[in-house]
Amino acid sequence: MRTHAPFGRRLARVAAVERVGGYDLIWAHDAEGPAPRPGQFYMLAAEDRWGAGEDERPWLPRAFSYCRADDGRLGFVLEDVGPGTRRLGQLRAGEGLWLTGPLGMGFAPPGNGRPLLVGGGIGVAPILCWSDELGPDARVLLGFRSGEYAAAAGLFRTEVELATDDGSAGRRAYVTELLRQELDADPVATVYACGPPQMLEAVRALCAEREVPAQLAMESGMACGFGACFGCVVPTREGYVRLCVDGPVVDAADLETALVAGSGH
Ligand SMILES: Cc1cc2nc3c(=O)[nH]c(=O)nc-3n(C[C@H](O)[C@H](O)[C@H](O)COP(=O)(O)OP(=O)(O)OC[C@H]3O[C@@H](n4cnc5c(N)ncnc54)[C@H](O)[C@@H]3O)c2cc1C
Ligand code: FES
Fold first, then answer.
1. pTM tops 0.85
2. Which residues lie closer than 8 Å to 57 by C-beta, 6 or more apart?
3. On the CB side of 9, how many CA atoms lie within 13 Å of its CA?
4. Is the CB of 64 under 6 A from ligand 1?
5. 118 touches 127 (CB < 8 A)
């Protein structure tokens, strides 16, 4: 489902920044913006020190799924992978945050039966707000590289099943192993997933084998976020689509593979 963002970007104030394990959780006041739908995203840029540094980066805004919208505040959970995410993680309460959004198409409601939510690493962000909305009937499976990052599981209001690569929290397994067991144990209406491309491809293949519908929240490099630059295109069975306007949530049945060039990090 798409919510139309107001034309242009708006300046929000940072309410708080918290450290959650290996991630930064930014809260921004946005009482004026339209209510977002789980799976939608925002283009973010700091008001100050955004492109005027010695190496002249990051310049362009960066795309982030919102993870929770509460009391006129938007939450974003970030992983520091480069200059943009680092600068955003350094924001402090009261600083300015440019935001454009909500953008793109979010998750569509599940069919009859139980929905199953799967998040890998920073892909936990859109799974969190979708879990808030669907409630405890939607089981949540999460995978992280280690217990430090698995601290993000504590943000969920429902119980979650946890796996880590190194076994330092939950089961020592990939989250797709938990998914395989769930799919084989009990019928599922729709699987919703967000995570790195290898994980999404494994989810796509497991669901395709069992003819279970799946919706995948994908990533690609985004320069504008609203359809103008064509930088975010990904191939589908019907041809190329712009992930920022036709996604980022894509029906898995439309994909040959979720391993699209330039996705993930
Ligand atoms: C729809 C969408 C939602 C996203 N939601 C989140 C989120 O909730 N939390 C979060 O931490 N990150 C999220 N991302 C990824 C985030 O946009 C990138 O991590 C960020 O742009 C990196 O910027 P940087 O300046 O820190 O690093 P850069 O120097 O720009 O990039 C660092 C590394 O990440 C790779 N990279 C950069 N941007 C992307 C991208 N969009 N997709 C895949 N790889 C990329 C680069 O190739 C490079 O290897 C999302 C991306 C999209 C498209
Ligand atoms: S990011 Fe510019 S068209 Fe999608």
1. yes
2. 51, 83, 84
3. 19
4. yes
5. yes
CB-based pocket (< 6 A), ligand 2: 222-225, 227-232, 242, 244
State the residue for tokens 């397994």.
Answer: 173
Both tokens of residue 256?
A: 């040959």
For residue 219, report the distance from its CA to the centre of ligand 2, in Å: 11
Q: Which ligand is nearest to the CA of 220?
A: 1
- pLDDT tens for each residue of 32-76: 899 999 999 999 999 998 986 666 667 899 999 999 999 999 999
Q: Is 218 in the pocket of ligand 1 (CB under 6 A)?
A: no
Q: Which atom of ligand 2 is nearest to the CA of 245?
A: 4
Q: Whose CA is closest to 14, among 102, 99, 98, 97?
A: 97
To the nearest 10 degrees (0 to 180), the angle between helices 175-185 and 197-210 is 10
Residues 79, 154 contacting (CB under 8 angstroms): no
